[in-house]
Amino acid sequence: MLTRNDDIRHQIWQTVSELDEEQLNRKPAPEQWSVMQVLRHLNLMERIIVKQAELALQKEQNVTVDKKPYELSLDRSRSLDAPPHLQPPAEPESLADVRRDLEQSHQALTDFAQNNDSSLLRSKSFPHPVFGEMDLAQWVDFASYHEERHLGQIKDIKQQLGF
Q1: Which residues contact 6 (CB under 8 A, 6 or more apart)?
Q2: DSSP string computed for 42-94
Q3: In 10 A of CB 43, how many CB atoms?
Q4: How far apart are CA 146 and CA 30, in angstroms?
Q5: How far apart are CA 72 and CA 95, in angstroms?
Q6: Are 2 and 114 in contact (CB under 8 A)?
Q7: C-alpha to C-alpha distance for 49 and 55, rounded to whole angstroms
Q8: Which residue, among 102, 85, 117, has the nearest Cα to 1 in the 3D structure?
Q9: Residue 150: pLDDT above 80?
Q10: Element (H, E) at 134
Q11: Contact 35, 19 (CB under 8 A)
């Protein structure tokens, strides 16, 4: 279940590896995010997925949820503003801090998925703002699609800045 998540994360680190901290914190335009802000957003998203999934496990009610087309999130021609709790800070951050936090949130997602039976993950859910109710197994898988979408954004930012 987590191979795709790990592969996309590896691609992200490869894509940003040649950038220094100043480059990572540079925005292509005032209204756009920097690469570092995208990385922080990924951390915030993973943390909220794990938090909401842990809360969903506490619910007594079991559900059956249809497979949602969250693969559509790869279509970057459609975009939504991230909700306030998933917005990265405006001020520059250090790569060491963001990388540490991303590694921790990724480990938390990995531990959550590995420490819970897949049938249990399919029996609990919480809503996605676009795709509606998704079971926890879908949420774990969705995390990789969300990161792949933002990998494209990181590549675009690098291109816009001439890196």
Answers
A1: none
A2: HHHHHHHHHHHHHHHHT-S-----PPP-GGGGG-TTS--PPPGGGPPPSS---
A3: 22
A4: 23
A5: 30
A6: yes
A7: 10
A8: 117
A9: yes
A10: strand 132-135
A11: yes
pLDDT, tens digit, for every residue of 17-73?
A: 999 999 999 999 999 999 999 999 999 999 999 999 999 999 988 999 999 999 999
End-to-end C-alpha distance for the chain, whole angstroms? 33
- Helix or strand or coil: residue 120? helix
State the Cα–Cα distance between residues 41 and 57, nearest whole angstrom: 24
Instruction: Record the tokens describing residue 72, joined without a space.
Output: 């559509």
Over the chain, what is the mean pLDDT? 95
Band (pLDDT 50/70/90 cuts) for residue 1 is low
> What length is written for the chain?
163
Global pTM reads 0.94
pLDDT at 4 over 70: yes
Q: Of 43, 159, 53, 150, which Cα lies nearest the Cα of 107? A: 43
Q: Give me the percent of the chain exceeding a pLDDT of 90.
A: 88
Measured distance CA(88)–CA(107) in Å, rounded:
20
CA-to-CA distance for 115 and 45, rounded, in angstroms?
Answer: 20
